[in-house]
Amino acid sequence: MNALTPYAAFFMRLAVGGVFLLHGVSKFHKFQRGIPATAAFLHDVGFPFAIVFAVILIAVETIGAACVVLGIFTRFWALCMALEMIIAILAVKLPHGGNIELEGLLFAGAITLVALGDGPLSIAVKLKHTS
Question: How many angstroms separate the CA atoms of 125 and 50, rounded?
């Protein structure tokens, strides 16, 4: 094992969490106006209970992404992100002939974080050592 291997989770957390956070925050700017616009999009692609799923989607992409970047509850939030990407690929991208490169990479990164966990450079590890 390479001496830097334990720190792989840190870089994966920054990449995956950063992309999700960027997408989550962007839902509140310019043409996307938060929950109503996200719910309208989900309704247009055929999701039932679009408002509920919009809230979940935005929570995963903002709160969850911030937690992943910081290394707090990484496995839980990464699993949520992986599920979001599976749903995005199967329910949105493939039926409409869209490219799945970004979603596929985010899915792979999220699954990697489920396997790796927080890693040594995380707030969760720092909190465990202080208690």
Answer: 36
Residue showing tokens 């990479």: 105
> Quick count: other Cβ atoms within 10 Å of Cβ 66?
16
CA distance 87 to 33: 22
Contact 113, 9 (CB under 8 A): yes
What does 11-39 look like in DSSP terms, one character per residue? Answer: HHHHHHHHHHHHHHHHTTSTT--HHHHHH
- 34-50 per-position pLDDT tens digit: 889 999 999 999 999 99
pTM reported for the whole predicted model: 0.90
Residues in the chain: 131
In tens, the pLDDT along 53-91 reads 999 999 999 999 999 999 999 999 999 999 999 999 999
Contact between residue 91 and residue 44 where contact means Cβ atoms under 8 Å apart? no
Domain residue spans of the chain: 5-130
The number of angstroms, rounded, from the C-alpha of 62 to the middle of its chain's C-alpha atoms is 8
**Between 101-116 and 74-87, two packed helices, what is the crossing angle to 10 degrees?**
150
Nearest C-alpha neighbor of 74 from the set 106, 108, 122: 122
